[in-house]
């Protein structure tokens, strides 16, 4: 973990893990599917790779897209759009 991209993408990925574990242990049936977490996880990996290759602007854009996907599809904190 040497770059800012490493730290940011790992933090987002950790948040995805916590969200998945929280929802999978809830009393009610989860409204999301495990496969819905895959695009965000892959996006974190791609953003980290791109950022480490010197494409900071593109990595920042991918991170924003990942965060928008998480907010729009996974809806943490019961976000409503």
Describe the structure in your own words.
The N and C termini lie far apart (35 Å). This protein has helices at residues 4-24, 38-52, 56-74. It is elongated. It is 68% helix and 0% strand. The longest helix has 21 residues, at 4-24. It is an all-alpha fold. Helix 1 runs parallel beside helix 3 (56-74). It has 3 helices and no strands.
Rg, alpha carbons: 13 Å
Our measurement of the CA-to-CA distance between the termini, rounded to an integer number of angstroms, reads 35 Å
Sheet/helix structural class: mainly alpha
Largest sheet: none
List the helices and strands and how they pair.
Elements (H helix, E strand, L loop, with lengths): L3 H21 L13 H15 L3 H19 L7
Helix pairs in contact: 1-2, 1-3, 2-3
